[in-house]
Structures are given as C-alpha cells and as structure tokens.
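Standup notes
- DV: blocked on the single-chain target, sequence here:
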Amino acid sequence: MALSPSKAHADDPKSKGKSGKFGRLPLITVLGESRQAWVAVFIFSFAINFLMLAPTIYMMQISDRVMTSRSLTTLLMLSLVAMVFFAVNGALEWARTSIMVRLGVRMDKRVGARLLAISHRCELEQSPDGRRLLSDLQQVRMFLTGHSLLAALDAPWVPIFAVVTFILHPLLFAVTVGGGVLMALLTVLTERSTHEPLIDAQNSAAEAQQFVAINMRHGDVIEAMGMFPQMLRRWQEKQDMHLIKQAQASDRAGVTQSISKFVRATNQGLSMAVGGFLFVTSDVSPGIVFAASYSRVGSWGRSKRSP
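- DV (later): unblocked, structure below
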C-alpha cells in the first residue's frame, strides 16, 4: 500500500524535498519504523486480556468462599486483590492507547509534508487524486486510535476465555463456542451486505464534494451566467444518491445488529440455564454459574467493541 496517488507524481523529482524522500513511501514501511512500540502494544494486549480473567475469578471466589463462610475478612482481602488487578488493567489500557495515539502522530509528521507536496502538484495539474491524500492520512491516523484496531488487537486473545469456560465444564464451552460461531457468521453477513452500499455512498459523497469544489472556484462565472439553479439541482441529485446508499447500508446493518443482540442475549441466558442445570444435577459450585456467564460476556466484549 502506497501513500502517493500515482507513481508518476510520487517519483517526480520536482516533488522531492530537502531530504530527497518525496518518492513512494509504503505505509507498512512507515508503521514498521516503530517496531518496538508495536511489540509493546502486543504485549500490553496480552496482559490486558489475561487480566480480564480477574473479574471471573473474583466472582467465583465471592460465591464459593464468602457466601458460604460469611467472612468479611475474606471479602475484604479478595476485594483488595481484585482492585489491584483492575487498576493494573486500566493502567495498561491507558498505556496502550497512548502508544497508539503517538504512533498516529509520528506517522502524520513522517508523511504529512510529503503528501501535502504531492497534493499540491496534483492540484496544479488539475488531477483529482491529490484532494483525498490528506483526508486519507487523517482516516489512517483515526484508525490507529480507534476502537476497530483495539478490537483487532484483542481478538487473538479471545480463546483465553473459551479455554477458561472449557475448564469450568465442556457443556458450557459448547454453548459459548456455538454462540461465538453465530456471532461470527452475523458479522460476516453484516460486512458482505453493507460493503457495496457503503462504498457507493463514499464515492457519491466524494463526487458531490468534488462537484462543489470545482464550481465554487468558478462561482463568479456561474452567477453571471445564471447557472446556479442548474448547479444546485445537479448537486442535489448527487447528494440524494449519497443519502440513499448510506440509508440502504444503515438499514441492512440495523437488521443484522438486531439479530446479533438477540443471539447475544439468548446465549447469555442459555449459559446461565446450563450452569444452573449443572449445579442441580452434578457436583458443581454456584460460582461456576456466574463465572461461566461472565467469561462468555468478556470474550465477546473484547472482540466486539462499541465504535
């Protein structure tokens, strides 16, 4: 993936700055210059997800030890230990987010001037390629600091929760995996059903913005010739197309999201029911019922963050 619009513009020696580095710059190269930071982010992600087991263990201990012994001392000590783990987890979350923000800033400083120079040359040559460069850079920077990347970093560690559920009981593991498979299928369905309308909506929005930008540069001529009503009508047509495509994508996403919420709630209730069944029919502690439900919620919560 390259950050320049075309090889002709990127390799143009006139577009080179003092450093002589205004040529093609692969995005992976820019991000790869901060390998140590990415390693730290990866390690923090593992630690964060591992510490997410603390609430599950805490809930089990409360049910199995405190509620049976009625010991306030045990409750106090368990709560203090849990608070320490919660605090460490929050600190690691903050540190990881801070690293991602600084990676985005470093990338912007690394390629911002380069992209501005290329965009300027594209504008002089009346090429539409350069108009999106800086906005694309902003989108990449927002992605680095957004919830989507954090969800991707957390997703590889979701099996930790599945393993914990299997240790609790294989039947609880089967319920958790079944719900996870359904959620994954719904996610794929959402992506496939909304991808094309979203792309069309983005393209139509870009066309409308480009149309306005071109006509605003010739505003005096358009006003003198009385062409503003025609320009307004054409812009409205493009804008209406954008709104239609965006509404279509939102409607499709709304349907699958509603189904996902139903599946999530149903699976959570099923996990509680299975835990209660195991408690009644076998030698299983009450804490497992709550721990199984919480670990299942945690596994989905780490892989599906709210945007």
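- Follow-up: The CA atoms of residues 201 and 245 lie 5 Å apart.
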